[in-house]
Design goal:
Layout: E1 5-13, H1 17-42, E2 49-54, E3 57-73, E4 82-91, E5 100-109, E6 115-124, H2 128-161
Antiparallel strand pairs: 1-6, 2-3, 3-4, 4-5, 5-6
Helix pairs in contact: 1-2
Length: 164
C-alpha cells in the first residue's frame, strides 16, 4: 500500500496462548465471521459487518476478509512465541466506496493463562482526494472505531467459545 493511515489496537483472551493460537490458526475466517455475526445478531442485524455508531445511528458494511499468510515464531531467548496472521479486507459490495485494509494480527502470551491479540494495520481511504479529505475530517475515527470493535468482538468470541 502506498500511503494510508495506521490503526493499532489490542485486546486479550483469558485462555492459554497454545489454545488461542491453534483455534485461530485452524479456522480464522470462521471465527471472524462467527464473532462479527454474533455481535451483529446482538445488535439485531443479519449480516457480518464492520460497524460503528455515529450520533446514535449504526453505520456498517459487509466485509470480505482474507487471511493471506500465517507465521509462527517459537519462543526465543528474550522474546515470547508469536503467531502473526496477515489479513486484508474490503467491503463485500461496492469496495471502491469503503477503505481497503491490510493488517497483521499478532497473537502472543501475556501470562500462562492470558493471550494478547494485537492488531496493526494500514488502510487506504476510498475515492481518491475526496476520500482523503473525508478521512482527515471523520473517516479515520470511523475506521479506527470499527477496527477496535472487530478486535473486541473476536476476543469476546474466543473468551466464550474456548471455555470447556
Amino acid at each position: 500500500m502506498s500511503e494510508g493511515r495506521e490503526i493499532r489496537c489490542y485486546d486479550y483472551v483469558n485462555h492459554p496462548y497454545p489454545q488461542v493460537r491453534d483455534s485461530l490458526s485452524g479456522s480464522a475466517l470462521k471465527i471472524f465471521q462467527a464473532a462479527t455475526k454474533g455481535a451483529a445478531a446482538r445488535a439485531r442485524s443479519v449480516a457480518s459487518e464492520l460497524r460503528i455508531q455515529i450520533a446514535g445511528i449504526e453505520v456498517g458494511t459487509d466485509i470480505a476478509i482474507a487471511v493471506n499468510k500465517i507465521e509462527h515464531r517459537e519462543q526465543a531467548a528474550k522474546s515470547p512465541p508469536v503467531t502473526q496472521m496477515h489479513l486484508q479486507w474490503e467491503a463485500a459490495r461496492s469496495p471502491r466506496l469503503f477503505p481497503f485494509m491490510r493488517a497483521t494480527l499478532s497473537i502472543y502470551p501475556l501470562t500462562a493463562t492470558e493471550t494478547q491479540l494485537d492488531f496493526s494495520g494500514r488502510y487506504e481511504p476510498p475515492l481518491g482526494p475526496l476520500g482523503s479529505a473525508m478521512d482527515a475530517l471523520i473517516g479515520h475515527h470511523i475506521a479506527e472505531a470499527s477496527v477496535h470493535r472487530f478486535v473486541r468482538e473476536v476476543a469476546e468470541y474466543l473468551r466464550i467459545e474456548l471455555n470447556p
